[in-house]
Every structure is written in structure tokens, then in C-alpha cells.
């Protein structure tokens, strides 16, 4: 048993080291993020915090739209700086900047007259350009972070996320002390400034260490990759839209005040699911280059993620009211048992993330996009139906039931594919053979079209 455990750890060391770096960055980001929202909750009225958090959630969704799948492409297809494709990263960054900024500007103009979520606090006309800039920087950050993971330099990605969280926290605390009563505009402003400064810092470090060679963006490198980019983008949107959109929906369905209490609970659950998600991101990066070891690494990752998720769910079940009270003493009464119920969904989120990585490794992203779109629509509909029947707790219960049903549907192919370490039974069922028999499904240059079911 012990030698088998040692072998499993040795084989999966790159997976552990890089996912560990991503996780550490995510944990630091989560801790500092909790501090950020704690300062916001103690410095601004709940309605202001609820509106600002809803707008920031929409900023994240627009950034994901503007990323157009380029970040995921760069994870599986990292360019080498000594090759002719080194202009790919600048081209991807520029594309995400323009598309995300344009989408953010369009959204801000369309909602400028919306009496509730069309403006944050007393932002006035300044909110429109600020929101657009924030969306543009969010899209760039998504592509840049994924490019660093693809280059296996998660340490710089860690530094960017930590610096982003720290800078925005310090700026918000300073603004709350020196210029109180600024309203929700202050939250959007410090969020945007923090993103800009963290990107400058990470970019300068990457250039100085030779990770990234600056140069003009080569836009001609993008057209041959459009099919793979579109597949990645469709899958990203279908899989991630509910998680980003839910705080916005809560603010619309109930009130900004209710969202102020829901948002920390939702953030805690997704912070707890960061480690399983980091495992699957690095699993895709390594498995894409090493098909032979993919099934074994999938089994190792499933075991590790499931154990962690069960422990995190237990902690949230026991300490939910204390966690919410940390942000604001009124939040536990507003949110009710929502965080306690949400914690039960962490295992299902972990299964969902592993299934996503498996679909990318198999190259069946187009088919998976259709499935995820159906599942996500069901997820949103179930949550909204539950909310209409039983308020915020019904919203939470509807989400929990839908995400659990998804996990049950995803488990059979995962268990059939995974080859478990430590002598546990498991069958690869043609995982490696399937990848080798269909070279057109690879995400590397020269890949043709997606495998047919």
C-alpha cells in the first residue's frame, strides 16, 4: 500500500505542484476577497453592497464572454517563445481586451436607465466607462491567467491574483476611512484599479523572467484556431454561466439587500471548490500532452477532490451562521440556511469540473457544450422555480437538487474512464486508445475537427 501511494504521488507530482500553486493563489484570493467584502459590508449599506456585487458578477460574465475561449486554448496549446507563434499570447490578450470592453460598454449603455441595477450608488455617468474598463480588464485577466497555467508558470498567476486581492482591499479600506459615503461607485472603482495594477505587475515579472517575450500581436495566428477557440468558448459559457450569474439573479428576483447576504455564502462555496477546480485545470494541461497517464491522473484527482469536498461541506454545514456573521451580524438572518444547504453542492461541483476536463481531453467539446447548456438551463430554471416558491432557501434548494442530478449523470463515464491508484478497482475503457485513435480531437496545432459521437 505504501509503495503504491509513493508511486502515485511521484507520477502525479506535476499535477500536485501546479494545482497546488493555483489553489494557494485561489485560497489567498478568497481570504483577501472575504476581507474585501467584510470591509464593504461594514462600510456601506446592504443595498449598496448588493448592487455592487451584482454588477461585479455581471462584469465576470461579460469578461467570460469576451475571453471567447482563448484562455482555455492557451492552456492546452501553450506557445513556445522561440517559435513563430509567440505572437499568439499578445493577439489573444488584445482580442479579449477589445471584445470584453465592447460588450461591457454595450451592457452599460443598455442598462443606464435601469432604476435598480442600472447604476451602483451615486455613480452617475462615470459608471458607464468604469464598468466597460472593468469588463475589458476582466477578460484580459482570464486570458493572461490561463496562458500562465499553460506555460506551467502558475507561480506568476498566483502572484497576480494575490496582488489583485490585496490592492483592492487596501484601496477600499483607505476609501472607507478617508472618503466615507462614496456609495457603490467606490467598490467598482477599487475593483477596476486593483485589476489594472495586478496585470501590470504580473506582466512585468513574466517579461523579466523570460516567461513571456513582448512583441506585436500576430492576429494571423488566430484564424486557423477559430474552430477550437469556438468549441472552448461554447463549453466555458455553458459550464460557468450559472455560477457567475446567480448573484445577479438573486438581486433581481429578491432584492439587493438579500443579495448582499447571499453573495458571501455563494463566494464561500466556490472558494471551497477552488481546489478541485484547480486540479482539473492542470489535469487538462498535463493530460493533453500525456495521453498515456491521463486515466491514472483522473482517478487520483477524483479521490483527492472528493475527500476535500466532503470535508469542506462538513465545515460549512457546522459553521455557516458564524461565517455569514463574520461579514455582517444581520446576514445570517437574511440568508437563513442557504450557506448550510449550499455546502452540500461542493462534491457535485467537483464531479462537474472533472467531467469538463474529461470532455476537453477527449476532444468532444461541441457535444459537451450542448449537454452543459441543457444542464445549466435546468440549473437556472430549478433555482428560479425554487425561489418563486420558497424564497432564498428555495432558490438554494433548487440549485442543490439540479447540481446533484448533474453529478449523478456525469459519474458513470468518469468512473469508467478513471484508473484509480492504490490498488482500487477501475477500468480505463479505451481512454488512451480513444485519444490515439482520433488524433483530430487534439488541441495541439494541426488538430482538425471534433470527434463525432
UniProtKB/TrEMBL annotation:
It is found in: Cell membrane. InterPro entries: Poly_Biosynth_Transport (IPR050833), Polysacc_synth (IPR002797). PANTHER family: O-ANTIGEN TRANSPORTER-RELATED, PST FAMILY PREDICTED COLANIC ACID TRANSPORTER. The lineage of its organism: Bacteria, Pseudomonadati, Pseudomonadota, Alphaproteobacteria, Acetobacterales. It is a multi-pass membrane protein. This is Oligosaccharide flippase family protein. Keywords: Cell membrane, Membrane, Transmembrane, Transmembrane helix. Its main location: membrane. The chain crosses the membrane at residues 15-39, 51-76, 88-110, 130-151, 158-179, 185-207, 234-255, 261-286, 298-319, 339-358, 370-391, 397-416. It comes from Paracraurococcus lichenis. The keyword GTP-binding does not apply. The keyword Membrane applies.
Amino acid at each position: 500500500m505504501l509503495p503504491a501511494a509513493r508511486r502515485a504521488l511521484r507520477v502525479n507530482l506535476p499535477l500536485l505542484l501546479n494545482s497546488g500553486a493555483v489553489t494557494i493563489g485561489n485560497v489567498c484570493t478568497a481570504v483577501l476577497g472575504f476581507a474585501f467584502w467584510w470591509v464593504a459590508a461594514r462600510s456601506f449599506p446592504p443595498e449598496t453592497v448588493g448592487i455592487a456585487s451584482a454588477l461585479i458578477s455581471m462584469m465576470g460574465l461579460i469578461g467570460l464572454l469576451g475571453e471567447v475561449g482563448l484562455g482555455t486554448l492557451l492552456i492546452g496549446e501553450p506557445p513556445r517563445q522561440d517559435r513563430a507563434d509567440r505572437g499568439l499570447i499578445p493577439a489573444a490578450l488584445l482580442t479579449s481586451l477589445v471584445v470584453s470592453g465592447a460588450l461591457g460598454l454595450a451592457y452599460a449603455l443598455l442598462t443606464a436607465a435601469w432604476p435598480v441595477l442600472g447604476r451602483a450608488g451615486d455613480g452617475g455617468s462615470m459608471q458607464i466607462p468604469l464598468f466597460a474598463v472593468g469588463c475589458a480588464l476582466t477578460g484580459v485577466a482570464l486570458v493572461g491567467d490561463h496562458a500562465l497555467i499553460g506555460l506551467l508558470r502558475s507561480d506568476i498567476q498566483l502572484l497576480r491574483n494575490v496582488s489583485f486581492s490585496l490592492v483592492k482591499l487596501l484601496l477600499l479600506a483607505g476609501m472607507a476611512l478617508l472618503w466615507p459615503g462614496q456609495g457603490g461607485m467606490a467598490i467598482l472603482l477599487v475593483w477596476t484599479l486593483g485589476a489594472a495594477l495586478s496585470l501590470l505587475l504580473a506582466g512585468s515579472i513574466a517579461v523579466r523572467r523570460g516567461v513571456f517575450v513582448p512583441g506585436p500581436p500576430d492576429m494571423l495566428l488566430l484564424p486557423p484556431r477559430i474552430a477550437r477557440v469556438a468549441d472552448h468558448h461554447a463549453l466555458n459559457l455553458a459550464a460557468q454561466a450559472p455560477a457567475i450569474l446567480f448573484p445577479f439573479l438573486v438581486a433581481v428576483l429578491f432584492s439587493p439587500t438579500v443579495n448582499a447576504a447571499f453573495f458571501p455564502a455563494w463566494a464561500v462555496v466556490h472558494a471551497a471548490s477552488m481546489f478541485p477546480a484547480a486540479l482539473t485545470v492542470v489535469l487538462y494541461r498535463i493530460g493533453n500532452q500525456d495521453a498515456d497517464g491521463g486515466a491514472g491522473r483522473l482517478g487520483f484527482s477524483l479521490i483527492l477532490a472528493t475527500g476535500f469536498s466532503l470535508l469542506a461541506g462538513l465545515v460549512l454545514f457546522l459553521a455557516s451562521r458564524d461565517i455569514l456573521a463574520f461579514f455582517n451580524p444581520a446576514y445570517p438572518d437574511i440568508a437563513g440556511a442557504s450557506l448550510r444547504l449550499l455546502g452540500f453542492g461542493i462534491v457535485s461541483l467537483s464531479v462537474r469540473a472533472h467531467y469538463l476536463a474529461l470532455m476537453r481531453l477527449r476532444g468532444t467539446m461541441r457535444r459537451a457544450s450542448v449537454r452543459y447548456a441543457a444542464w445549466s438551463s435546468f440549473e437556472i430554471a430549478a433555482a428560479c422555480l425554487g425561489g418563486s416558491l420558497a424564497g432564498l432557501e428555495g432558490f438554494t434548494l433548487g440549485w442543490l437538487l439540479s447540481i446533484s442530478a448533474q453529478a449523478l449523470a456525469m459519474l458513470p463515464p468518469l468512473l469508467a474512464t478513471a484508473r484509480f491508484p492504490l490498488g482500487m478497482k477501475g477500468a480505463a475503457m479505451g481512454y488512451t486508445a480513444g485519444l490515439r485513435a482520433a488524433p483530430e480531437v487534439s488541441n495541439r496545432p494541426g488538430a482538425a475537427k471534433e470527434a463525432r459521437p
